[in-house]
Amino acid sequence: MKIHEYQAKELFAKHGIPVPPGRVATTPDEVEAVAREIGGRVVVKAQVHVGGRGKAGGIKLADDPADARAKAEAILGMDIKGLTVQKVLVTQAIDIAEEYYLGITLDRDARMHVLILSAAGGIDIEEVAKATPEKIARVNIDPLIGMQGFQIKKAIYGSGVDISKGRQIADFARKLYDCYLAVDSSLAEINPLVITTDGELMALDAKINLDDNALHRHPDLEKLREVGADLDAIEAQAQDMHIAYVHLGGGSIGVMGNGAGLVMNTMDVVSRAGGKPNNFLDIGGAATPEVVEKSFNLILQDPAVKGIFLNVFGGIVRCDVVAEGMIKAYTHLSRKVPVVLRMTGTNEDKAKEMLEKTELVYAPTTEEGAAKIVELVGKA
User: Fold this and answer.
1) Range of the domain at 277
2) Which residues contact 158 (CB under 8 A, 6 or more apart)?
3) Active site residue 189
């Protein structure tokens, strides 16, 4: 889960990381008032869940409150990579002497956290990694031991940063690591970490990505989730219902199943049969008729869906329970589409008997089911 820059800066400030004074605003009037409150030059920054804001014209320097208002009028409502800017962060402009990069993320291959430091800040760290990897220092951190002083020194001496600022940078690294762990994030990033003309260090930008699997421990942070770059409106509803759903969009065939591997395999088989899956939906191992009905309705919210293929292995979940849910859901739907079900396992015969009395189509194998739904959608 992504959060906005201003929200990440609030978390940084709670952990003692210096950030420029600023406040979020949603109208040009508010922007002008905040700029007057801060005084002097300010920066007006679009708050959207994507990178490249500066290149898109979403970050502008303003000399005074009136100029800040004009810049806000240009930024608010603009489109950045498909997202509409609805709010901006108005923050004090800082005189910069040097720009660094400091980040902590998860190295899944090593099963460790990784501290990343570079003297080449202010630009995409991915570009630096490709063009000049020698400018980046990476140090893995054992989660059972934590970040050690010698590891921070190794990063500082290997990154090309100003060694005279080593103690300040080390302090930033420790505080960033504390913040990273405290909120269960998968990424905590300062880009740029600047040295001001007064010789002070400050987090000029802030980025935090939160681990979705740990959000139950942070209900205050979970409330910050917004429909946008992370989730579309249907995915947000699915998450509230605790249903594993990914909206691919563009496809005409909705895909459901019990078990992530089975659903992904079903999507592949549908594609090989000439169809285009619209979504991934895993009803889980203990699906009730209510869950099946909710899942059905989620898929059909996309008008592009012209048919649904449900593939069930009746191990934990019984085939007749799923069939009951599908029959109940189908009778309640205002928009009817062809539905093909492939079921095998516990109470499979009972499920087949139940389906014979409905408009729902039973298929004995995944391949036959995929071919049938592609055929029916083509006729719809």
Assistant:
1) 233-379
2) 117, 137
3) yes
Better pLDDT: 155 or 126: 155
The answer, yes or no, to whether residue 53 has pLDDT greater than 60, is: yes
Provide the 10 A C-beta neighbour count for residue 270: 27
Amino acid at 142: D
**Tokens 């909120």 belong to residue:** 183
Domain CATH for 296:
3.40.50.261
Same domain, 342 and 370: yes
Longest dimension (CA), the chain: 80
The CATH number assigned to the domain holding 169 equals 3.30.470.20
Report yes or no on 327 lying in a domain: yes
Alpha-carbon Rg of the chain, whole angstroms? 26
Q: What is the mean pLDDT of residues 160-168?
A: 94
CA-CA distance, 82 to 376, in Å (whole number)? 34
Last residue of a domain, one of 92, 121, 136: 92
The active-site residue, picked from 6, 32, 99, 101, is 101
Residues contacting residue 94 through CB under 8 Å, at least 6 positions apart: 20, 194, 196, 202, 204
Domain boundary among 92, 125, 146: 92
- Token pair recorded at residue 377: 């959608």
Cα 257 → chain centroid: 24
Q: 3-class SS at 189?
A: strand
Is residue 304 assigned to a domain? yes
228 in a domain, yes or no? Answer: no
The larger pLDDT score, comparing residue 74 to residue 356, is at 74
> Which of 5, 32, 99, 189 is flagged as catalytic?
189
How far apart are the C-alpha atoms of 271 and 304, rounded to whole Å? 16
Instruction: Let me know if 101 is a catalytic residue.
Output: yes
Residues facing 245 on adjacent strands: 281
d(CA 43, CA 34): 11
Mean pLDDT, all residues of the chain:
91
Strand partners, 309: 255, 340
Compute the distance between CA of residue 135 and CA of residue 96 in angstroms, rounded to an integer: 20
Model confidence pLDDT, tens digit, residues 264-321: 999 999 999 999 999 999 988 666 777 888 898 899 999 999 999 999 887 777 888 8
